[in-house]
């Protein structure tokens, strides 16, 4: 159930790079070597995106008026192009003039292509092939190519998800760059930091930055937020004087350390060019990693160096804004590390230890137990038209082992419809496990039954979506042959949440069905009647959408909404009363 989107994501972006002075001696050989190195670095730094904002066309779109071709070249990783649900599709960008192309970067949505080709054309009619694959794996792809093109086309021939089409958040065409590839993060970063004696060194350490933002859009986005092990908080350069190059953020590890890995989780305000630098005195800095082709999201950098201080020094911004990082994590040995809070162990699935259960076996007319559930009254969000009544007036057991949540046409508190919403907030919350409910949903235009979870820090004042939301099941009464599973976080929420529509194969309103999520430190897998319908893998989300903010406690919610932005309006055919029946809710670890 999507909650209202709260302002707070206006993140500036910018980058800077330190001047490079090469002194290799006074000998002629040294001078020539310095000239060669400087020339090579300048050539690499010249690589630029030449596709952003250019006209784009495609064979189709998934929905009329939405997911348009131009949304893949708008520089916004929260918008995307999506095709119709058939295997043969294409997408193309017009660069405006013949251009020397050096690289293609694709940020795929979950509906990626296993097989596709990249083609170049100077006239829009005859094409040459620049790249081909039959083993695409989605995520973020960086493809080295060479050739001259005005038109760059991707021909898509095999889908990863056979029931959908193709979709990517951004398709970037680059021009320029040196002949020696710059050091870049691995395409598929390791899922865990280095093992052995290495550990997280940067948690809760003193931080500093060139500037930082503290206004209505980011309050506060101070440098310490990048080292708090909280991926829902971030550092950003100031919106008044920090949208310039260079921009930097540093951390004091407390003592000399041997660095072996740096992980950056960028906000969309990322650095195109930056260095990771080390220092022993916080004054003199040495680079241990340099790139001029940063593409945002998650960078896992296996670079080695020694120093007490570590700095990200940005020299070229990806946009007109500044720089912003959700997390800046440094791993290695030495330093003076502080242990972050321990996470619970991953469950072993199938999980069998029951930690929460309500079977609703009480006598007919019994209200949900207040030892397990909190009634959640009031005016809803998302354009819904019902009033959720207090004291569970619209929810009670039927004496046959079911909870009945009823939407009624009823005047109440200025509304013409009532319904029920209840949650386990303050009664039960947990991290990881299998969460399942057996539910029969109602059919009817504008009805919106849901089984979902909210991060329990919402109860202590953290606003949505920074607390996180996990939608295990949403069904729209206008089409009960499908269900939705979605994650909401600061970087992906509302209509841009991470998830998908799942074909049920049956009419879900005709019988009970089991909706479940299995959640651990690697991700969340969603199930319908034991069949996995969607896998939200943590690494994939971090590398394609933004930070994974779900490693903390969540509580459960059941509700039946009426109308709203997502299901659309009710009409004369919508039945009232309408009932959502819940056989049981269980959590296993």
UniProtKB/TrEMBL annotation:
Cytoplasm listed as a keyword: no
Domain F5/8 type C, chain residue ranges per copy: 38-176, 190-333
Domain GH16 residue range list? 331-589
Q: Does the keyword Membrane apply?
A: no
The superkingdom listed in its UniProt entry is Bacteria
Q: Where is this region: Disordered?
A: 177-197
In this chain, composition skew of type Pro residues spans 182-193
Q: Keyword annotations for this protein?
A: Glycosidase, Hydrolase, Signal
Q: Which InterPro entries match?
A: Beta-glucanase-like, ConA-like_dom_sf, FA58C, Galactose-bd-like_sf, GH16_AS, Glycosyl_Hydrlase_16
Query: What family name appears in the similarity comment?
Result: Belongs to the glycosyl hydrolase 16 family.
Query: What protein am I looking at?
Result: Discoidin domain-containing protein
């Amino acid at each position: 159930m999507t909650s209202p989107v709260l302002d707070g994501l206006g993140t500036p972006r910018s980058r800077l790079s330190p001047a490079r002075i090469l002194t290799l001696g006074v000998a002629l050989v040294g001078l020539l070597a310095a000239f060669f190195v400087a020339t090579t670095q300048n050539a690499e730094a010249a690589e630029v995106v030449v596709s952003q904002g250019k006209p784009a066309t495609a064979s189709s779109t998934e929905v009329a008026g939405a997911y348009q071709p131009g949304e893949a070249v708008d520089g916004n990783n929260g918008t995307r192009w999506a095709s119709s649900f058939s295997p043969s599709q294409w997408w193309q960008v017009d660069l405006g003039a013949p251009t020397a192309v050096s690289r293609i970067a694709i940020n795929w949505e979950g509906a990626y292509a296993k097989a596709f080709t990249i083609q170049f054309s100077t006239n829009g009619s005859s094409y040459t092939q620049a790249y081909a694959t039959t083993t695409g794996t989605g995520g973020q792809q960086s493809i080295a190519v060479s050739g001259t093109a005005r038109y760059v086309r991707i021909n898509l021939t095999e889908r990863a998800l056979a029931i959908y089409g193709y979709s990517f958040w951004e398709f970037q065409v680059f021009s320029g760059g040196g002949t020696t590839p710059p050091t870049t993060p691995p395409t598929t970063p390791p899922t865990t930091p280095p093992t052995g004696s290495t550990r997280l060194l940067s948690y809760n350490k003193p931080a500093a930055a060139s500037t930082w933002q503290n206004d209505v859009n980011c309050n506060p986005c101070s440098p310490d937020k990048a080292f708090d092990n909280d991926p829902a908080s971030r550092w950003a350069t100031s919106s008044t004087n920090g949208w310039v190059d260079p921009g930097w953020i540093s951390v004091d590890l407390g003592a000399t350390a041997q660095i072996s890995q740096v992980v950056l989780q960028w906000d969309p305000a990322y650095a195109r060019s930056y260095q990771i630098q080390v220092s022993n005195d916080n004054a003199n800095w040495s680079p241990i990693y340099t790139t001029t082709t940063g593409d945002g999201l998650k960078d896992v950098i296996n670079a080695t160096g020694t120093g007490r201080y570590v700095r990200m020094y940005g020299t070229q911004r990806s946009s007109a804004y500044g720089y912003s990082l959700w997390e800046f994590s440094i791993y290695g040995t030495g330093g003076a590390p502080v242990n972050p809070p321990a996470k619970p162990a991953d469950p072993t699935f199938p999980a069998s230890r029951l930690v929460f259960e309500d079977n609703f076996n009480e006598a007919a007319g019994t209200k949900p137990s207040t030892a397990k559930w909190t009634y959640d009254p009031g005016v809803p969000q998302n354009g819904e038209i019902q009033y959720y009544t207090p004291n569970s007036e619209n929810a009670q057991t039927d004496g046959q082992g079911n909870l009945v949540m009823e939407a009624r046409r009823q005047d109440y508190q200025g509304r013409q419809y009532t319904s029920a919403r209840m949650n386990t907030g303050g009664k039960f919350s947990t991290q990881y496990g299998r969460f399942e409910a057996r539910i029969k949903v109602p059919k009817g235009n504008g009805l919106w039954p849901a089984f979902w979870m909210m991060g329990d820090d919402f109860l202590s004042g953290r606003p949505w979506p920074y607390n996180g939301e996990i939608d295990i099941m949403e069904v729209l009464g206008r089409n009960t042959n499908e269900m939705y599973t979605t994650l909401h976080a600061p970087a992906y929420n509302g209509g841009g949440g991470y998830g998908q529509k799942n074909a049920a194969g049956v009419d879900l309103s005709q019988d009970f069905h089991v909706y479940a999520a299995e959640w651990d430190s690697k991700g969340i897998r969603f199930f319908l009647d034991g069949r996995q319908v969607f896998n939200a893998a943590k690494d994939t989300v971090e590398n394609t959408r933004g930070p994974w903010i779900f490693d903390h406690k969540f509580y459960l919610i059941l509700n039946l909404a009426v109308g709203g932005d997502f299901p659309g309006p009710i009409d004369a055919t919508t039945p009232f009363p309408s009932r959502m029946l819940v056989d049981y809710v269980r959590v296993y670890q």
